[in-house]
C-alpha cells in the first residue's frame, strides 16, 4: 500500500500513521516492505506448516460487517484503502468466528506493507498458533493472560505488582499489548522489531515485553496514584510519549521505544511456568464467576420479597378485613344488607362486581410484579 503512487499524499494524516514518526517515507518505503515480507517466513519457522486462506467478497454477518466498515473508516482516508481493509477483515471473520477491534489494528498495519492474502495468513497464524482465543468480542483467554502478566510482574518486581494491582485491573490496559499488539502504542520503527521477535519467539515474548515496559517506567509508575495517569503511562499514550520522546538528553529520537524492545530480550522467563499460572488464573476466574452468580441469585431472591407500592395500597389498609375480596357465598353481602346498605339483589350484584374487580386487581398486581421481576433480571444481565 505504501508504495502506491499517491499514498503519501492521500494518507499522510491517516490515523494508522500516527505512530510512524517519520520512520517510513517515500524514499525508504520499498525497503520497509521487503523487511515486512519476511514476517510470514519467520512465522513458518515457528509454526512449521503452511497456511492456506481465501479472500472473501462479503461477510454473512451484517452487524459484524457494519462494525468492520466503521473500523476501516477510522483507519484510512481513501476509500480504496478502506475497501482493502474490509476485504481482509471479512475474510478473517469466518476463521475466528468472532471479531475484535485488535484484528483491525494489526491488519491495517500489515496492509501498509503486504498484500491482503499475506495479511490474512499472518492473522490466521496469530489466531491459531500464537494467541488462540484473543480475537473474540469477550476474550477469556486474554483476560486469563492479563492476570498471568500480573503474576509474572510479581515475580520480577513485587513493588510494581502491588502498586498497579491496588489501582487498576490488568484487563484495563494489557489489551493494547496483547490483542492490539502495540499498534498505536509503539513507533513504527520499534513496532517492526516487536513483530519480528513475537513471530520468532511466540506468545512468551508478550510477557517479556510487558515486564520490560513496566521496568522502563518503574519510577513514573511508582510516583503516581492517579488511575488515569497510570493508564496513560502503561499504554504509552502519545500525549506523554510523543514519537520524538527522549527519556534523557543523550538519547536519540526513537531510542526510548527501541530500548523497550531490546530490554525485552534480557527478561529471563526460565523460572516462569506459564501453564501453571494460566491454570491458577482460570481457577480464579471460575471462582469469581461462581461468586457473581451467587450474588445475582441473592439479589433476585431479595427482589422477590420486596413489597411493591401497589401491593401496599391494596393489602395493607387499616382494619382486619381491609382489602378483603367479597366472598363468593355472599356472606359479606348479607352483612351489608343487614346493615341497611341496600336491598339484597343490589348488594348481591355489587358483591359479584366486587369479586370481579378484586380478581382483576390481584391479577394486575401479580402481572406488575412479574414485569418488575423480569425487568430486574434483564438489568442484572446487562
TrEMBL record:
TM spans (from-to): none
A Pfam short name: RabGAP-TBC
UniProt-annotated stretches for the region Disordered: 313-344
SUPFAM superfamilies registered for this protein in UniProt: Ypt/Rab-GAP domain of gyp1p (SSF47923)
Domain of life: Eukaryota
UniProt-recorded Gene Ontology molecular function terms: GTPase activator activity; small GTPase binding
InterPro entries (alphabetical): Rab-GAP-TBC_dom, Rab-GAP_TBC_sf, Rab_GAP_TBC_domain
Domain Rab-GAP TBC as annotated: residue spans: 1-202
Stored PANTHER family: GTPASE ACTIVATING PROTEIN AND CENTROSOME-ASSOCIATED, ISOFORM B, RAB GTPASE-ACTIVATING PROTEIN 1-LIKE
Name used for this protein in its record: GTPase-activating protein, putative
Organism field: Plasmodium ovale (malaria parasite P. ovale)
Organism lineage: Eukaryota, Sar, Alveolata, Apicomplexa, Aconoidasida
Amino acid at each position: 500500500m505504501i508504495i502506491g503512487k499517491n499514498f503519501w499524499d492521500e494518507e499522510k494524516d491517516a490515523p494508522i500513521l500516527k505512530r510512524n514518526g517519520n520512520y517510513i517515507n517515500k524514499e525508504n518505503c520499498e525497503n520497509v516492505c521487503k523487511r515486512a515480507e519476511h514476517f510470514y517466513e519467520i512465522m513458518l519457522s515457528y509454526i512449521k506448516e503452511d497456511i492456506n486462506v481465501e479472500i472473501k467478497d462479503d461477510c454473512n454477518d451484517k452487524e459484524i460487517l457494519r462494525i468492520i466498515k466503521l473500523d476501516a473508516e477510522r483507519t484510512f482516508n481513501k476509500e480504496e484503502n478502506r475497501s482493502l481493509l474490509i476485504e481482509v477483515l471479512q475474510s478473517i471473520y469466518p476463521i475466528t468466528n468472532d471479531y475484535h477491534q485488535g484484528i483491525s489494528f494489526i491488519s491495517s498495519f500489515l496492509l501498509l506493507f503486504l498484500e491482503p492474502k499475506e495479511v490474512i495468513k499472518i492473522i490466521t497464524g496469530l489466531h491459531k498458533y500464537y494467541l488462540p482465543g484473543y480475537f473474540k468480542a469477550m476474550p477469556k483467554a486474554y483476560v486469563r493472560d492479563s492476570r498471568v502478566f500480573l503474576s509474572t510482574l510479581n515475580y520480577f518486581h513485587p513493588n510494581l505488582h502491588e502498586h498497579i494491582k491496588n489501582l487498576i485491573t490488568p484487563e484495563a490496559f494489557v489489551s493494547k499489548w496483547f490483542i492490539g499488539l502495540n499498534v498505536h502504542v509503539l513507533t513504527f520503527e520499534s513496532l517492526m522489531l516487536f513483530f519480528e521477535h513475537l513471530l520468532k519467539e511466540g506468545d512468551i515474548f508478550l510477557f517479556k515485553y510487558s515486564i520490560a515496559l513496566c521496568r522502563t517506567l518503574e519510577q513514573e509508575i511508582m510516583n503516581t496514584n492517579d488511575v488515569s495517569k497510570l493508564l496513560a503511562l502503561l499504554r504509552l499514550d502519545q500525549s506523554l510519549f510523543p514519537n520524538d520522546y527522549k527519556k534523557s538528553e543523550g538519547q536519540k529520537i526513537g531510542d526510548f521505544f527501541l530500548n523497550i524492545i531490546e530490554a525485552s530480550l534480557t527478561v529471563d522467563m526460565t523460572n516462569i511456568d506459564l501453564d501453571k499460572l494460566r491454570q491458577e488464573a482460570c481457577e480464579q476466574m471460575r471462582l469469581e464467576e461462581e461468586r457473581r452468580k451467587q450474588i445475582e441469585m441473592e439479589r433476585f431472591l431479595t427482589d422477590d420479597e420486596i413489597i411493591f407500592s401497589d401491593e401496599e395500597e391494596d393489602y395493607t389498609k387499616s382494619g382486619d378485613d381491609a382489602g378483603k375480596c367479597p366472598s363468593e357465598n355472599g356472606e359479606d353481602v348479607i352483612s351489608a344488607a343487614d346493615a341497611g346498605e341496600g336491598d339484597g339483589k343490589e348488594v348481591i350484584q355489587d358483591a359479584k362486581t366486587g369479586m370481579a374487580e378484586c380478581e382483576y386487581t390481584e391479577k394486575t398486581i401479580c402481572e406488575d410484579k412479574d414485569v418488575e421481576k423480569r425487568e430486574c433480571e434483564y438489568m442484572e444481565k446487562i
